[in-house]
């Protein structure tokens, strides 16, 4: 029944005003294209290149980019930089995306609960959010990942555990403002359970801000993974990530600057793209808020 | 004012309590917990460890351990470094000045440039400058600080040879100019992200103020646009920025850690990484708690300063 009603009223999503606004946002389109190209390159690239990311060729150490058979040059062990860049991209993008999913999940749960229930539970939850925000995130991430066994999975969990607070704040504010609206009161009078009202009635109406925050969280998670891996406490070699490719690149800065420049450029492109997309979604979904 | 102060102080106390609980949880997540240092020592037997556990009171319930730990924190007894046996607070104190110098100079840069970009963006809304500033800010927020630092070192130290690639001063040359020379690149690198954030907020704040009635009144009085901007707009727009400066502190500290690592700057961030490398957990925990307490206190100070300046907040 509800499906029929929804269907008859809903326009095709690609014809909706939201989609139009998003498509007319140039930066967001650029971001989408860049992410699509980057993802495709990371997924397909390793199959197209003649070299394996782990293949060591000591005769071809420190080959500069755009010369010979190694398109982006080689590292101190003679491994092909392009192959490593693509394999690293898979890890970095996957960690960033998974961390976003997990932290959005935590943040949404905390935010909905705090916003709807309010009272001492809401206060406690939101003060905990403030408490987590008081720690410089990298100190927490480093302390946790040094203490726990570093695996891609663990890094993802640690990054998510230290980046869910923004989503929680946004969702809490949104839910608190929706809580007293008529449709929620109607739900309460119909005798719907609290869980049903929170997650089936209120949450769908708060999706816009959540989607925007989630997109920006991907950008932050990729950056955070890069930071901890660069500092040596993130993804561990031989598994490459964009961050750990830069770990140790500083000592070769004078002789082989491409070792530092190329992976860093990949991080910047990926993060910029997600920030552009987030900005476009904010405009398209008409989410108010500061422009940072 | 008194009501506001009491309210704000009690909020900060609650926050410190929560911060300490989070810190205690992190401490206990470290394998071996507070005994981690002894687990690495091969001459320690399980009996020794058990006896130590007994002595240090680690077999008591967690909440008692927490109270004990928190009480020692309050008293200033933060434990001793595993590396040289010095009290943790002394070790932190030795590295504090270098970090404050770096953070201070980069904050000055960020405020100066960010304020200018923000105001110009707001007064020339939708101009080419405004558009470039918007896009530029988003890109600046996406550049990893360590990579920006490495590129800076490559260009300005290795290629052009204008600026030193690291350290706080040249050994044997302790002149102020030498310090300044070493300070330039790290503080610009650390400032980049905050120029972006500051300029975006400043733009929004300026736009808010420009649309207010008193600006219309000033215009009706026939004041020049420049005078309106300088006298009425900028001051009011800068007010919320004080709060922002406090809120940005955790991210400045995060940036400082990375910048100090790239530029071998002897501050708290490097100390944190070095201590992590040596599994010197008392110092790691000390820095974690110190930075969070610093953040809570600075936010408190920022709010009080705003309340002193702005009667609307003080009296409401």
TrEMBL record, chain A:
The lineage of its organism: Bacteria, Pseudomonadati, Pseudomonadota, Alphaproteobacteria, Hyphomicrobiales. The chain crosses the membrane at residues 27-49, 91-116, 128-147, 153-171, 210-235, 255-278. GO terms for cellular component: plasma membrane. This is Oligopeptide transport system permease AppC. Keywords: Cell membrane, Membrane, Peptide transport, Plasmid, Protein transport, Transmembrane, Transmembrane helix, Transport. Belongs to the binding-protein-dependent transport system permease family. CDD domains: TM_PBP2. SUPFAM superfamilies: MetI-like. It comes from the Bacteria. It is found in: Cell membrane.
UniProtKB/TrEMBL annotation, chain B:
It comes from the Bacteria. It is found in: Cell membrane. It comes from Sinorhizobium americanum. Gene3D superfamilies: MetI-like. The chain crosses the membrane at residues 12-30, 96-119, 131-156, 176-197, 237-263, 283-309. Belongs to the binding-protein-dependent transport system permease family. It is a multi-pass membrane protein. This is Oligopeptide transport system permease AppB. GO terms for cellular component: plasma membrane. One of its GO terms (biological process) is transmembrane transport. Keywords: Cell membrane, Membrane, Plasmid, Transmembrane, Transmembrane helix, Transport. Pfam families: BPD_transp_1, BPD_transp_1_N.
């Amino acid at each position: 029944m509800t499906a029929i009603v929804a269907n008859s009223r809903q326009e095709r999503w690609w014809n909706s005003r939201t989609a139009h606004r998003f498509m007319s946002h140039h930066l967001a389109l650029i971001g989408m294209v860049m992410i699509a190209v980057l993802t495709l390159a990371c997924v397909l690239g390793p199959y197209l290149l003649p070299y394996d990311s782990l293949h060591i060729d000591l005769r071809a150490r420190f080959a500069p980019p755009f010369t010979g058979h190694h398109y982006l040059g080689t590292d101190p062990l003679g491994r092909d930089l392009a192959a490593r860049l693509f394999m690293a991209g898979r890890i970095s993008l996957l960690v960033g995306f998974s961390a976003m999913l997990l932290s959005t999940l935590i943040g949404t749960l905390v935010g909905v609960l705090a916003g709807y229930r309010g009272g001492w539970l809401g206060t406690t939850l939101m003060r905990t959010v403030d408490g987590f925000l008081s720690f410089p995130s990298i100190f927490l991430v480093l302390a946790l990942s040094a203490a726990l066994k570093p695996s891609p999975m663990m890094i993802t969990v640690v990054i998510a555990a230290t980046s869910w607070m923004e989503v929680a704040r946004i969702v809490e504010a949104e839910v608190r403002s929706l809580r007293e609206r008529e449709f929620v009161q109607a739900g309460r009078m119909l005798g719907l359970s609290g869980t049903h009202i929170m997650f089936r009635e209120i949450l769908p109406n708060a999706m816009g801000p959540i989607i925007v925050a989630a997109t920006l969280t991907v950008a932050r998670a990729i950056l955070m993974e890069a930071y901890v891996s660069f500092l040596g406490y993130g993804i561990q070699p031989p598994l490459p990530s964009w961050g750990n490719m830069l770990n140790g690149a500083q000592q070769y800065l004078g002789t082989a600057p491409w070792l530092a420049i190329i992976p860093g450029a990949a991080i910047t492109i990926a993060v910029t793209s997600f920030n552009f997309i987030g900005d476009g979604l904010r405009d398209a979904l008409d989410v108010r808020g500061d422009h940072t | 004012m008194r009501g506001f102060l009491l309210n704000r102080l009690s909020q900060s106390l609650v926050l410190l309590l929560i911060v300490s609980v989070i810190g205690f949880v992190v401490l206990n997540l470290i394998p071996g917990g507070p005994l981690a240092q002894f687990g690495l020592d091969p001459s320690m037997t399980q009996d020794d460890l058990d006896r130590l556990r007994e002595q240090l009171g680690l077999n008591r319930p967690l909440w008692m351990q927490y109270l004990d730990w928190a009480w020692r924190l309050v008293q200033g007894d933060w434990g001793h470094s595993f590396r040289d046996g010095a009290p943790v607070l002394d070790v932190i104190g030795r590295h504090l000045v270098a970090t404050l110098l770096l953070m201070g100079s980069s904050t000055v840069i960020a405020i100066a440039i960010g304020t200018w970009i923000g105001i110009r963006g707001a007064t020339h809304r939708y101009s080419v400058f405004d558009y470039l500033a918007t896009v530029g800010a988003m890109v600046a927020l996406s550049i990893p600080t360590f990579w920006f630092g490495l590129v800076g070192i490559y260009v300005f130290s290795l290629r052009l040879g204008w600026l030193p690639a690291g350290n706080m001063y040249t050994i044997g040359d302790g002149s102020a100019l030498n310090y300044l020379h070493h300070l330039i690149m790290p503080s610009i690198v650390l400032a980049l992200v905050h120029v972006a954030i500051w300029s975006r907020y400043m733009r929004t704040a300026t736009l808010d103020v420009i649309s207010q009635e008193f600006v219309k009144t000033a215009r009706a009085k026939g004041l020049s646009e420049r005078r309106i901007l300088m006298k009425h707009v900028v001051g009011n727009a800068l007010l919320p920025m004080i709060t922002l400066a406090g809120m940005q502190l955790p991210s400045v500290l995060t940036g400082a850690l990375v910048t100090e690592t790239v530029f071998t700057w002897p501050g708290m961030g490097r100390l944190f990484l070095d201590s992590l490398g040596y599994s010197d957990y008392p110092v790691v925990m000390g820095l974690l708690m110190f930075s969070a307490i610093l953040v809570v206190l600075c936010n408190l100070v920022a709010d009080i300063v705003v309340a002193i300046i702005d009667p609307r907040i003080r009296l409401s």
